[in-house]
Amino acid sequence: MRRDVFQAIADPTRRAILTLIALQAMTPNALAEHFDTSRQAVSKHIKILTECQLVKQEQSGREIYYHFNPQNMKEVADWLAPFQQMWEDRFDRLDIVLDNLKNKKK
Fold it and tell me: What CA–CA distance (Å, rounded) separates 7 from 64?
C-alpha cells in the first residue's frame, strides 16, 4: 500500500513519535514508554512512518534505533508555504492598521 506523508502525520501519535525522534534517535521500547498504548501499537505507527520514509532505522547491536528523516517533510513544508505567506501578509496589514490607529491618538 502506497502511503503519503500527509497520511503519516494525520495521526497525533505519529506526530508525537516524529517530535520525539527529531530530538534524538530512539529504540521502539524507549518510544513506547512515552505512550499509554502497547509497544506493538507504537511499532505499527513506526512502520507507517518508515513506509513514508519519515523515519530511518539503524541497527546497533541488538537494538534498532529510529531516526527522523527530515527530507520527506519538505513536501509538507512546501504545501504549507502559501498558507504561511497568506497569514504573514494579513499580520503585516494588521500592523499597518494598528500603527495608523496609534498615530491618530497622538
Answer: 24
**Burial (CB count within 10 angstroms: exposed 0-12, middle 13-18, buried 19+), residue 74:** exposed
Tell me, what's the pLDDT at 105?
80
Does residue 54 contact residue 45 with C-beta atoms inside 8 Å?
no
pLDDT of residue 2: 67
What is the value of pTM for the model shown?
0.79
Higher pLDDT, 37 or 105: 37
Q: What is the 3-state secondary structure (H, E, C) of 11-56?
A: CHHHHHHHHHHHHCCECHHHHHCCCCCCHHHHHHHHHHHHHCCCEE
Beta carbons within 8 Å of 60's beta carbon, 6+ residues apart: none
Please answer whether residues 66 and 27 qualify as being in contact, where contact means their C-beta atoms are separated by less than 8 angstroms.
yes
C-alpha cell at 3: 502511503
